[in-house]
Amino acid sequence: MKILKYTLGLLLSIFIASCSSDDHDTMEDLTGQTGSLILKFDNGIGNQDFIFGTTYTNFKGETYQLETLKYLISNVRLTDNQGNTYTYPEEENIFIVSEANGNAAGEIYITLNNIDAANYTHVTFGIGVDQERYASGADGQGDFLTTAQDEGMMWSWATGYRFMRLDGTYSSPTKTNAALNIHMGSVGTSVDNYKETTLAFPNEVLVREAKEPSVHIKADIAQVFDGLTSVSFDAGYAQVHTDEITTGVIATNMSGIFSVHHVHND
């Protein structure tokens, strides 16, 4: 009986060691491997798709329609399941998410190329332009400076970038089809409205040479007006440009509009 027990124990030990060896042998070696990742930004209003010219209502009961919707994303960083952080190259790490450039599904693609292969669990990005990039001057902006100017995302070099542009009209109990222009940004170095957000993925994003995974990021534009602070257009938030208070409120609200809906590991 003892011999049988010892024999079974020996066989079990050999089996476990064999399985461990097989698992080790089949683990992926990602050394030197790179791949691409697509961030798909999908703007909406609550649970509705965003559509230009559609009338929406804020928590204050004011209605609004938008004809321009665009914002800046920068400093994209990815965190893997080992806690390592990959930062996209600085010279390429700034993008304009413009609703006008959306596909038939209303998604705006940001494709990150040649990033380190890994199993990623989080993405972090900034909304707007940080002070270090701004301080690098015109030379430090590279080709993006021209792009931003062409897209109407700058006031002038003295005051810097518009981090977001929401243009349209609104109506309230006292006004009908009044102008609505939300042009939040930092004001030189005196008012810093740059914010960052970190989003967890519902499952690991597998970046590999033979894969091109995608992350579907929902952006609830309604939260720009009804996020941490609900604002009224009639109370000074119909024209947001360089004021320290109104731009700060909108910047904080803007940092909370994003969430990851799902990921694809194609």
UniProtKB/TrEMBL annotation:
Keywords: Signal. Pfam families: MbnP. Residues 1-21 form the signal peptide. InterPro entries: MbnP-like_dom. The keyword Signal applies. Residues 34-229 form the Copper-binding protein MbnP-like domain. It comes from the Bacteria. This is Copper-binding protein MbnP-like domain-containing protein. It comes from Algibacter pectinivorans.
